[in-house]
Q: What sequence folds into this?
């Protein structure tokens, strides 16, 4: 079975994000990039499918940052067999439509039986890459999936709806799946293993061709401004009650 996993590298959201000098985006020089969390679940589900049904897992991504190798090495350390990156003169903020087209063109040549991708990227929460890849490839798509079982040219997927309602679909292959959570937590890849793979692994490069500018333009980016502050009061219930009444009178809310 040929399994393909499109991945994305995103800023480490646990770090302090800085805005660039002209206030139109993030300061990319200050960013550290990591593998998208939902794509980690897609990789885990792909490796589980490979272990149960046989085959190979290929990870592929659009290198918009020039630093995609780190995410690809991590994916290989987690159990993927091959890695490829789509290269080209891509502007910062290349839109989802363009990335989906580039990914679909590359994936088509890989002749996949199933495509597993994260249901969304943790940085933009767009959630459109999977459906658009499926549209370009002419394949069915099921998203918000929490488990995939492949057998006999078909896949059984479990999809989660609002309120925790679950549904089971049987879909003929090939298909595209948007994975929200794998059957089990994504396996840990030791740093030593990632470093070793970085020295020895081969990453295929796929020319992405020319692309248009970003489909949308950020006019202004800014940190949220504090609207006010909270004041904490100590004391007995009676003392706090007196302070509340005094504050209400001071603001003219009690006459």
A:
């Amino acid at each position: 079975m040929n399994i393909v996993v499109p991945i994305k590298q995103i800023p480490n959201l646990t770090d302090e994000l800085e805005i660039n000098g002209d206030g139109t985006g993030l300061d990319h020089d200050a960013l550290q990039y990591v593998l998208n969390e939902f794509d980690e679940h897609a990789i885990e589900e792909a490796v589980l499918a490979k272990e149960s049904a046989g085959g190979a897992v290929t990870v592929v991504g659009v290198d918009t940052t020039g630093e995609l190798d780190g995410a690809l090495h991590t994916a290989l350390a987690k159990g993927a067999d091959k890695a490829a990156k789509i290269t080209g003169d891509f502007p910062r903020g290349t839109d989802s439509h363009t990335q989906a087209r580039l990914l679909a063109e590359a994936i088509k040549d890989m002749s996949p039986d199933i495509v597993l991708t994260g249901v969304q990227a943790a940085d933009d929460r767009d959630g459109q890459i999977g459906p658009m890849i499926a549209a370009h490839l002419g394949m069915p798509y099921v998203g918000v999936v929490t488990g995939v079982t492949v057998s006999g040219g078909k896949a059984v997927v479990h999809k989660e709806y609002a309120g925790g309602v679950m549904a089971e679909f049987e879909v003929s292959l090939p298909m595209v799946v948007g994975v929200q959570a794998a059957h089990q937590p994504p396996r840990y890849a030791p740093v030593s293993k990632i470093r070793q793979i970085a020295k020895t692994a081969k990453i295929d490069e796929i020319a992405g061709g020319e692309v248009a500018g970003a489909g949308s333009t950020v006019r202004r980016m800014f940190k949220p401004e504090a609207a006010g502050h909270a004041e904490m009061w100590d004391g007995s219930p009676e003392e706090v009650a007196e302070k509340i009444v005094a504050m209400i009178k001071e603001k003219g809310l009690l006459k």
